[in-house]
Amino acid sequence: MVITDIYDLERLARKRLPKSIYTYFANGGYEEETLRRNIADLRKFVLVPHVLNDVSERSIEGTMAGMRVSMPVGLAPVGACGLSYPNAEVEAALAAKEAGVPFCLSTVSIATIEDVARATRAPFWFQLYLMKDKKVGEALVERAKQAGVSAIVLSMDLHVRSQRHGEQKRGIGAPPRVDLTNIVDALVHFRWLLSMVRSKRRTFGNLIGLVPHAKNVGKVTEWLEEQFDPTLSTKDIDWARNVWPHKLLVKGVLSADDAKQCFDHGADGIIVSNHGGRQVDGAVSTVSVLAEIVDAVGGRGDVIVDSGIRSGVDVLKMLALGATGCLIGRAYVYGLSANGREGVQKALSIIRKELDQNMALCGLTNLKNIPRDIIRVQEGAELRNPAIHF
Ligand SMILES: Cc1cc2nc3c(=O)[nH]c(=O)nc-3n(C[C@H](O)[C@H](O)[C@H](O)COP(=O)(O)O)c2cc1C
To answer: Is 310 in the pocket of ligand 1 (CB under 6 A)?
Structure first.
């Protein structure tokens, strides 16, 4: 198969993964309205190319959270990413390092902070979920310091977990359901099953030693379900700012007011995100609120954005609306699921090429100070929605 775009990687991922695991990665909250809107709204924004410029010398380099990047596109934190491929987080982190872009490890990853640090020997980002048990957060921050993590990404959009119908139907919950359907599903996808024997770990690695029964996936998922902290508020940004001396990014911001408060409380940057449409169903798309957030923040720090990005054109649109960088979630997880580190490299190279070519075609030689008149809303332009998940 000739792989031309991220949707080809999604097709390959869907073929290789058991249905339950593909559903876990692909689905969104409730009726998946926000999941669809993220992608549809990106298509509502259209580009106005300027064709009278010499674009023979150009650069897509940038800076994200103080880090020089070969393109302003990082890998978002994805929990239980290790279900996609053996030692998946380490493979993804190595692909990101080779590509010169940031990798962010999730609190609820399968590989540990130390696994990634040992393998990459390079700075990476760590995403922090604060639990009711404060000792867990304190210990994770300490380990992040020891491992040379360069930025903490504090996720503020998970006071409680939303419901994802697809996961519930397939028995991905707390605890996961092991029934005949899921066993047959795994056996039918024997290439995936056999490959997973090479996984170094089989539970949420970062939680081992910190929570009771961490090696028992059933028990630890039940613990997690109880532990998401509904009291999350600006006090937690203050806490993180106090204990973390390096870059602090607050993830999950969707309103201009919240964005300003994050900076007032000491954040170095924000990540405009609706969790890839996995939390509030009916929430705004990130692309539709990005410009007003950028304007409200007024250059106080990084405004990174994610949710719905599936191409270099999507990245270009986000940057044209004022983002300093983008994160991709599913776009790289599909590559990872299809072919491990090489699959992530493929996803990044697809996005890199699309970004560079379309930047040139729009008359731009770099990604800084893109004139705003290069992008506008065109109602009806979203009608073509190629997402294969739907
Ligand atoms: C399967 C899956 C698991 C995720 N786990 C986390 C997580 O552990 N922590 C977090 O902050 N965000 C998590 N996210 C959200 C991503 O970091 C990111 O915001 C989202 O994937 C961006 O949307 P996209 O997938 O459309 O690119 C997860 C997303 C997916 C798809």
So the answer is: no
